[in-house]
Amino acid sequence: MVRVVVVGAGYGGLRAVEHLVKDSNIEIVLFDENPYHYLQTEAYGYIAGRFNINDLAVDLNSWCLGFGVKVKFIHAKVNTVDYEKQEVYFQQEKLFYDYLIIAVGAKTNFFSFIQGLKENAYGVKSLKEAYSFRQKFESMIYQKLSYQEQQERNIVIAGAGLSGVEIAAEMAYILQLYAKTIGSRTQEIKIYLVDASETILPGMSRYLIKNTHQRLSELEVNVLTNSFITKVDSKHLYFKDTGSLSYSFMIFTGGISGAELIEHISGEKNKLNQLIVDNKLNIKGYTNVYAIGDCVQLHDKHLNILAPTAQTAEKSAEYVVECIQQRMRGKACKLFDEKISGVFVALGGKYGVGEIFGFIKVKGYGAFLLKKAITYAYLLGLHLRINIDFKNRIKK
Question: What is the mean pLDDT of residues 327-354?
């Protein structure tokens, strides 16, 4: 029996397990420092108070038990890896592997050149961070509802990529809904979306940018592009050459870096602390060690960098599983060459914008339905596996 160890239970890690389990000659061990899988793509709705915890968290032990004895979940933080001995080290223990898949994801990169950023801003790369930000937002709403304060409050989302745009849009939409509850006092809460780039959604198509801009304008989100933040304190953020902006609380979605484990293992890395792998996603020099998802610098055959999304994490996972199976059979695997199939942006309420395969364009309610269908299918698959575990317990 061949043992494959998967470190990290994000989108890539779970997709790897789902495909590995189909091979009867493989046993799987999944590690994660959290006991749950976090659907980070749904954080925007949770932060704004529209989604609940069950919409973006799944118990990993129950999910793994749904596969039977072939998959073992170890709730522990992996501290380091010895490629020569083929061992992962966690707590005071170690575990041998035949193949290793590193899928630990990324953390928010609070840029050190922005003074005070890390001390004063929240991220959304973890459920704990999303939960803290949600509490801040709901507290502000309650204060307005109960007339506890009547000052203008600014919420700043720094980073106008996909995550930042979705969070800003959903919060602005929720504020509009609250107009029926707290009346004109909703106007005392302003949403600011800030980015140093020339446009929102940098790197995306003109269609997505144009329609997203229009929707943000309708939701009264204040968009500040070409706005380079140089310093943040507890009450203000300061721009290069353009003054300052007061704020009540701030979320930062402007960058990522490789998760902590990447700092403690060998391998070539880029300036964002992501692993640099070869064209088969191997750590250079080790054909039985792979890295997938946000913790690795992924690119297509033309060396174009692929955006760190759930989609690229899942595609890299599927590729790596196929490679492992080919090598187990003594065959060579093809080179990694994937691309983004489509992008959907949630823009508050039942509205979205999206592109599929670069030429199918959709916006409004239709885009919302397509995005929700994708998320629902993913979450349903996780819940069905958990239901298998529950049924097995009843039988016993």
Answer: 93
